[in-house]
Amino acid sequence: MNKTFSEADDLLNDIMEKLESTTLDKNTQLIVCPPFPFLEMTSDYSDDSYFLVGAQNVSDQEVGAYTGEVSAAMLESLEIDYCIVGHSERRAYYHETDEIVARKVDQLLKHNLKPIVCCGEVLEEREAGKQCEVVRKQIEDGLFHLTEEQFSNVIIAYEPVWAIGTGKTATPDQAQEMHAFIRSLIAGKYGDAVAEETSILYGGSCKPSNAKELFANKDVDGGLIGGASLKAEVFIGIATAF
Predict the structure, then answer these.
(1) What's the pLDDT at 49?
(2) Radius of gyration (Cα) for the chain, nearest Å?
(3) Which residues are designated catalytic?
(4) Overall domain count for the chain
(5) 63: domain CATH number?
(6) pTM above 0.90?
C-alpha cells in the first residue's frame, strides 16, 4: 500500500525508461503488481513496455454484496494477467486461511488469471524447525485440490516471513532447500514434469546485491519483490540479476 496516483505514474515511467535502456535475459518475465486504483493505468503502460500486470489480491467470492471487495471477473475485464494471493500480510493481518486462499485461486483460474500463491513460515516456526510442515500444509490445503491442468497455471512464491522487511535474508542455501522441498511436494502430487515447469519465486528481502546469488540456485526461478520494487533502478537491478 504505497504511492499516490501521481507517484505511481512517476514510478511506472521510471520503470519504462530503464527497461528501454536495459537488456533483460530472453527468459526473464517482469510482472508489476500495483494497488487496485492503479491497475488500469499500469495495464495501459504495459501495452508499450516489457512487463505484464498483476493485482495484489482478489475476493474469494464471485459477485454480490461484498462492499469493498474486487472480484476476479473485474480483474479479467481489465485484462490483468496475474494476481497475488495468500501473501503473508493478508494471512497475518486479515486472517486469511488456506481455505480462503484455495477459493481465491479457484476464482482466478475460472476467470483466466494466473495465481501467484504465497507460502512461508514465521520466525517462531522456523526456530522450532517446523518450516517444512507449515509450508506443506499451506500448499496442500491451498492448491492440491486442483487438476494437473489447472495447477500448470499456478506460480508459487516462498516467503520466509522472518526475512520480510526485517533486513534479514534467507541464505541461498536456505532458499534452495525450501524451494527444492516445494518442488518435491509438487512432483509427489502431479509428477516430475509439472514440478519442473512450475515457477517458484523467492520473496524475502531480495535486492540487487543478493539477487544473483539467490537466483543462481537450481530451484529459485525468480523473486517476489516488495519494498525494493518502489525504486525503479533497484527493481530493474534485480530483474537483470539472471
Answers:
(1) 86
(2) 17
(3) 87, 159
(4) 1
(5) 3.20.20.70
(6) yes
